[in-house]
Amino acid sequence: MRILVIEDDEGVRGMIVRMLTDDGHEILEAGDGRSGLEHLEAHPDIDLTVTDILMPVMEGLETIRVIRKRFPGMRTLAISGGGQFGPEYCLDLARKMGASATLQKPFIRNELLDAITDAMRDRA
Predict the structure, then answer these.
(1) Backbone angles phi, psi at 91, to 5 degrees
(2) Where are the beta strands (DSSP E) in the chain?
(3) pTM more than 0.85
(4) Could you tell me which residue, 86 or 61, shows the higher pLDDT?
(5) d(Cα 50, Cα 7) in Å, to the nearest integer?
(6) CA distance 92 to 100
(7) Per residue in 86-111, pLDDT tens?
(8) Core-most of 37, 41, 46, 50, by most CB within 10 Å?
(9) What angle do CA 16, 58, 108 make, to 5 degrees?
């Protein structure tokens, strides 16, 4: 599967990329939502986007909103470690904005892979 990882923290992004590469996925990377959208425009064969919520330049909720509008079939996994309102609040908003699945940071490899499976399931 071809996955775009949008995460501003280089360490977290690198960890996610390693986990997914080790699982056999092809990965593209972006440090913010705007760069992520540019990747989606340039690579229409991306199967899934994994996006952080709290990022500079273009945050994750806006990124999800734009993805839903421009790429309606794109599956999106929203990840978050919190912010001032906590991760549950951010992830609930992400679901309302159209995220296919959500995952709270920190997480382990199996939790990430399970969340990707959830995100790729057909919605009812």
Answers:
(1) -70, -35
(2) 2-6, 26-30, 48-52, 75-80, 101-104
(3) yes
(4) 61
(5) 8
(6) 11
(7) 778 889 999 999 999 999 999 999 99
(8) 50
(9) 20
Residue 48 has pLDDT above 50, yes or no: yes
Residue written as token pair 């920190």: 106
19: tokens are 């986990």
78 beta partners: 51, 102
| 103 Cβ contact partners less than 8 Å away, ≥ 6 residues apart | 77, 78, 79, 91, 111, 112, 115
User: 10 Å Cβ neighbour count for 91?
Assistant: 22
Contact 43, 28 (CB under 8 A): yes
